[in-house]
Amino acid sequence: WQEKRGLRELRVLENLKNTIFETDEHVLPKCEQAMHDNLNETLKRLQAANNMIHRLREREREERKLQADKLTAREEKCVAHWEKFMEEQQNKRAEVDEEHRKAMERLKEQYSEMEKELAKYASF
């Protein structure tokens, strides 16, 4: 009975030794290779994603600059338009003021003439 038990334990130990050898020689290298391959593939994908993000950010930066340039150009155009408008208003104001001054002069002359005419009749 003791001898059978010893043989069974020897077989269990032999099986364990074989399992450990199989794991060490075949399973672990396969796992390491699979892990290495997967990590390399993951690294390549991450690098590709990083490159895509970099290109997208660059395009976005260029688009923002283009929009800012357009906005600046529109603002400059509006300022130039406003300055021209204000200059035209100033010129129109000057014209109106001059017309008013001339009209006032004509009215003064007209009233002056009317006063002279009235003065003629008042002396009677």
From TrEMBL:
Keyword Glycoprotein attached: no
Coiled-coil intervals, chain numbering: 39-124
Signal sequence range: none
Chaperone in keyword set: no
Keyword list, A-Z: Coiled coil
GO CC terms: BLOC-1 complex; transport vesicle
Ranges that cross the membrane: none
InterPro entries: Bloc1s5
Recorded superkingdom: Eukaryota
Homology family: Belongs to the BLOC1S5 family.
Protein name: Biogenesis of lysosome-related organelles complex 1 subunit 5
Organism: Rhynochetos jubatus (kagu)
Record lineage: Eukaryota, Metazoa, Chordata, Craniata, Vertebrata
